[in-house]
Design brief:
Number of domains: 1
Order of helices and strands: HEEEHHHEHEHHHH
CATH topology: Nucleotidyltransferase, domain 5
CATH architecture: 2-Layer Sandwich
Distance between the termini: 36 Å
Strand content: 15-25%
Largest sheet: 5 strands, mixed
Radius of gyration: 18 Å
Structural class: alpha/beta
Shape: globular
Length: 218
């Protein structure tokens, strides 16, 4: 199912696991289940930014399970930059009673298990989780990952005539939501962003772009 290189990385990662209680992360994921998640941080550089909140929601059998959600706030270890507050609106006072980063990461791992992870420009969020996870457990997230921006891009191009230069496709989150006719919730809130991502994923999973493309191109 997976390439040799992925399998090698998976086994190498598993061999570095410090705490056998978290071996469940490397087990077979439940069929037809994924977790959409998002992080709010104090900046855009994973090496320097602090994790401030994590939002996640499960999808099972093509349904968003809003009853199975996760919303965590993390106590910062340094003052939050004013520029980032304008984006996520999380002030120091809003998160000073939050969880320690270690406890938040472990709660997140318990929630996701071995399920596939779905997100928007997921690389950044995964890097933030790994930044805290690796010192704790010696490993990084082994979960398969799906970025909705890539899925959206591929479906927008579905049916496009071969050999022609690809058209510009706007991958901004707001544009994707509008194009798909989805309701925009409060943005830069980790759980709301995870929930909107889940809405997009469900539509893409059901071939939104493939159906729409029938009238896209001559």
């Amino acid at each position: 199912m997976f390439g040799f290189w992925w399998q090698w990385q998976f086994q190498w990662n598993l061999s570095k696991l410090k705490d056998p209680r978290y071996r469940f992360l490397f087990e077979t994921a439940p069929e037809d289940e994924v977790v959409c998640f998002d992080c709010e941080t104090s900046g855009l550089n994973p090496k320097k930014a602090q994790l401030l909140s994590i939002g996640a929601v499960k999808i099972a059998h093509n349904k968003i399970l809003t009853s199975q959600k996760l919303e965590l706030f993390i106590k910062p270890t340094a003052e939050i930059d004013h520029a980032s507050i304008k984006v996520h609106r999380l002030r120091h006072i809003d998160v000073e009673n939050g969880l320690d980063a270690k406890d938040a990461i472990l709660k997140f791992l318990d929630f996701i298990g071995p399920r596939k992870l779905v997100g928007y420009y997921l690389e950044f969020d995964v890097a933030m989780i790994n930044k805290y996870m690796k010192p704790l457990l010696g490993v990084t997230l082994p979960n398969q990952q799906v970025d909705i921006s890539g899925l959206y891009y591929n479906q927008k191009l579905y049916g496009y005539p071969a050999g022609l230069p690809h058209p510009h496709i706007d991958l901004r989150f707001d544009t994707i939501m509008q194009e798909m006719g989805l309701p925009v919730l409060g943005k830069h809130d980790a759980f709301n962003d995870a929930l909107m991502t889940a809405m997009i994923y469900i539509k893409l999973l059901n071939g939104w772009g493939m159906r729409k493309s029938e009238n896209n191109y001559d």
